[in-house]
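Continuing from the previous page of notes. For each protein in this section, the sequence appears first, followed by its structure tokens. Read the first protein now.
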Amino acid sequence: MDFDFTQEQVMLRNLTREFLSRESTPRAARAAMEDPRGFSDATWRQMAEMGLPGVAIDAGYGGQGLGMVELALVLDEMGRAAYPGPYFATALLAASAITASGQENQMARYLPDIAHGRTRATLALIDDALAWTPAGVTMRVERRGDGFVLSGEKRFVPFAEAADLLLVVARTGDGPDGTSVFVVPRDLAGVTSSPNLEMDRTNQTSTVAFEGVSVGLDAVLGEVDRGWAVIGPTLQRAAVGAAAEMLGAARRCMDMSVEYARVRQQFGQPIGMFQAIKHMCADMLLEVENAHAAVYYAAWALDAGSPDAALAASSAKAYVGEAARKVCGSAVQVHGGIGFTWEYDLHLYFKRAKHFEPLYGDADFHREQALRLMLERAAAEQPQTESVAALVS
């Protein structure tokens, strides 16, 4: 069994790293913090020329036709560089949801423009309940004639200020699902937004308000009252993508710590010679390597349609969320007082990891998901086990 990346995957990772090391420097990240939309148009255009927004979009819709592994590689590098921009919202959240709908007309309408960087989009999912399940969707939509009227608020919408399209999840019915997904142009009458003050200011979110926003039946993505058939698979990919970003941020913090331990002198020798620092760096490496394995196995499982893909995605998000927090926290300790300062770049990566820790399900949520999946598997296997036992007896 070969666990190495293919030559093409290595080339994609190296090209992305080279590009981000040039265009997404700490200075660029700090400049994006002051931009109302939170990103650079020039950098986005260059990413589009490289084909990065269409990495995981089918070639028939203008993308590169690659998979979650390749998308995770790109997001890993974006976490490592603390890239400030709507890539995650557009290339993962929106593109995944549109693809999951399976609607040929909607895919042909939106995916080519997303793949070529002409359209930026995002997912408006969270309501006051701050939940990642259908029950957490409380914003209701009124059916009026041949269309719908949206009224209410969506919270923590990523890069809403930069988006051309909002994929809005709202309640249209009752029952276990009862949700629907609507594609709403950002400039439609009645749509307003206000940016939130985030801890990670390179990852902008907004509260988006809808005041009597009218959309037609053609705005529905997927089927009415079956929105979770679109959102469920999207959230699995989002969990793995978020874990990839946290992995990149943790890896960057570890690398900075090792380099700092080599050059920082105390008592006439590098602090890396002290046993406590050695152990701390060794523990950081252990967490990063385990996180790497968890992320890329989950990405492979999603691409392969493996029976344990959902379990792998939840395991990756749960593990990497806590591992990244440990690694980034240890990095601050290795650096000492300078690690806490605004002027030092370490906080960019620490905050990137912390930003994604609760998003798309925190560790507790995904542990519960993993337990539920394992119990369902055990229940499905029990009749077969009992029948085998009866034959043996």
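Done with the first. The second protein uses the same format. Note its length before scrolling.
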Amino acid sequence: MTIAVLRLGHRPARDKRVTTHVALAARAFGADAVLVSTKDAGLERTIRAIAAKFGGRFEIRTGVPWRETIRGWPGPVVHLTMYGEGLEDALPRIPRDRDVLVVVGAEKVPRAVYDLATFNIAVGNQPHSEVAALAVFLDRFLGGTGLKRVFSGKLRIVPSKRGKVVEAARVRT
């Protein structure tokens, strides 16, 4: 199963940090790719550099036509929205044996997304960020396994009660 996140409505001047955080959360919590509807070469460079530094396979593409992407997706499309059905009610019905596309918005999401999505899911019933919704959804959908993945990159953050512990990758001979 592949999990991709589609970010709709990215505005490079306004949403740069939040879209970067969407991509970072997607990667850290178990997604394989992030697709962004607006072309942003700087965002692509940033995320590719982080993936190269910390390891793991993670794809980013920007300038992706959202409507065609959703229509052509081979598996379920999960739209995270405040106006959907409850996460706990929907989770058991989302297939785990097919590729999943998770859609998160930046600005007002077009009505067509609600109609094209297989699931419109609300993570909670209060306003919150798309980064939080994505992290909670991926963690629940993957049963916590996304956070347990091992990345083999140039750097590795070592869990520590206090302080920052970062190891350089060991060179194998």
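What the second structure shows: The mean pLDDT is 93. Residues 159 and 165 are 7 Å apart (CA to CA). We return to this in next week's lecture.
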